[in-house]
Amino acid sequence: MSYEDGPVDALSALADGEVIDLSQTLEEGMPVVPTHARYSHTLYESYERGDVACHYRLTLGEHTGTHIDAPLHFIAEGDAHCDIASIELEKLIGRAATIDVADIERNTTVPVERIKQWEAEHGDLREGDRVLFRFNWDRHWAPGSAGTQYMADWPGLSGEAAEYLTDTGVALVGCDTAAIDVAHDESFPAHYELLGNETYIVENLTALDALPPFSLLITLPLKIEDGSGSPIRAVAIVD
């Protein structure tokens, strides 16, 4: 079984491969975009209180933790695939290419040339692929004040690189930063280019260093009506 050779049977991959968790743990005090809802985990029933079951109330935003952006997140008008409940699930399961750009400096962007260099070494990206960028920014992820750096000065994808990916026809682009656009760029060129072409975005990934150049990626969202995004459990299966 080789992910480089194209589509693989998911059941065979699960049987023969190693499953890598690419998701950040949801916990109070975790890094969040300042304008987004903060995560909380409130106990409602407990054995200690004499209840017959245990359960918690969750308070979180659609873009909390490791999550996926639907086109609705930045595109005001679109077709039936605009919100997260209408997302094309087949785009969220399949071959993923992981591009290591850990040497990209903070507050700078990945140029098109880096993607082409990767292709020259590992093979061309194909229509329908998922592309993950490892900035190694998840090393800054931590709850509370220890995670302050995670939400500041992160690197991102240039608008030109995003256009190159949509021209290729990739299905999804992911990163281990707070956003696919570089920090402080409020024109959001990568978001508009990707989501405007129904190329979904996954942010706040982790453990991308455990992935080879190609793997099988699964990134399934909650089915939220009129949702602009959703937390996910992202996993990769490596050969």
From TrEMBL:
Native species: Haloferax sulfurifontis ATCC BAA-897
Name of the protein in its database record: Cyclase family protein
UniProt-listed GO biological process terms: L-tryptophan catabolic process to kynurenine
A GO MF term: arylformamidase activity
InterPro entries registered for this protein in UniProt: KFase/CYL (IPR007325), KFase_sf (IPR037175)
Superkingdom in the source lineage: Archaea
